Amino acid sequence: MDRPVVGEPARRRVRELLDDLFDRAKQVPRVWVHDLAPSTQNGSIPEIINTSHVEPRLLQTDAYRMLHQVARRLLGGPVWLAIDHAIFKPPHKGVPTALHQDRAFNPRSTAPTATIWLALVDATVYNGCMRFLPETPDRLLDHRPAGRDALEVIGVEESAALACPVPAGGFTVHGELAVHGSGTNETDDVRAAWILKLAPDTRSFRQRAWERSVELQGAVLPRRFAELSTAIAQSADATVGHPKWAEPGVSGGHEPDSE
After folding, report:
1. I need a surface site. Which of 17, 113, 154, 169 has the fewest CB within 10 A?
2. pLDDT at 241
3. Ramachandran angles phi, psi of 116, nearest 5°
4. What distance in Å separates the CA atoms of residue 249 and residue 245, rounded to the nearest whole number?
5. Quick one: pLDDT at residue 256?
6. In terms of C-beta density within 10 A (0-12 exposed, 13-18 middle, 19 or more buried), how is residue 96 classed?
7. Could you tell me which residues are beta bridge partners of residue 192?
8. From the centroid of its chain, how far is CA 220?
9. What is the pLDDT of residues 3-18, one digit of tens each?
10. How wide is the angle at C-alpha 145 spanned by C-alphas 238 and 113, nearest 5°?
11. Directed axis angle between helix 8-23 and helix 62-75, to 10°?
12. C-alpha distance from residue 253 to each of 22, 81, 193, 211 (Å)
């Protein structure tokens, strides 16, 4: 979307919540705190997944309401939030995000989805806007690890992807097989984005309405609470700790920008 859809007040509220979440990233289950930087690059790409599990106020925002409606129109009916995450690419050291397909992280997923990448600041070719391969493959391509937590598609040249700049409050949308990534942040500010993957919801109207009422109260749904509890248990058993950017006293690149 090459024009703002989410207005500045709604965008600012999401940014406030996510800034606070990145500030306390050490308190988030370690299995949900990632560094997407390729191993061949110096620097970090801070990411927190399942952000609404640990900060349910995100689902009370006007931005979420708008994007939920967008996904509903795109998918032709009721939708539910399958996963959301935030990526805050640091200034000057925010390295490229490798080209990949989202399905590579969950190959068994076959349901149609709409992944909305909301720009919380102007996303440009200079600070690492989204890049897409012009044609979407009809299958999952081969991938390999790219650094600590990322994957990259094999056999696709980075130069083949086209940059898709959007203004703050604008967004891109892609499916799970779309090959995409993002560029380097060469600017003085954080390149901040909130990403939501929504899928068709076949449950009854009553069940959907009940869950939304819980969300609007700022409470965590039982489903998300169970996932959060599992993540905490997995983190306790994990042999790898939080990435370096999340450690106390280390800048994770999430400082508020100049806007």
Report:
1. 154
2. 83
3. -105, 120
4. 9
5. 39
6. buried
7. 88
8. 19
9. 788 999 999 999 999 9
10. 90
11. 110
12. 9, 27, 13, 34
CA dist., res. 56 & res. 173, Å (int): 23
- What pLDDT was estimated at residue 4? 82
Residue 220 sits at φ, ψ, to 5 deg, of: -90, 130
User: Look-up: residue for tokens 């097989």?
Assistant: 177
* β-strand partners of 171: 118
Burial class (CB in 10 A: 0-12, 13-18, 19+), 200: middle
Question: Could you say which residues of the chain have pLDDT below 50?
Answer: 251-253, 255-259
- DSSP bridge pairs for 88: 192
Q: What is the pTM of this model?
A: 0.92
pLDDT of residue 258: 34
Terminal Cα distance for the chain, rounded: 21
Q: 252, 22 in Cβ contact below 8 A?
A: yes
Counts of helices then strands in the chain (DSSP H, E): 5, 12
133, 177 Cβ separation under 8 angstroms: no
pLDDT at 87: 95
Question: Would you state the pLDDT for residue 224?
Answer: 94
Label the pairing between strands 79-89 and 33-35. unpaired
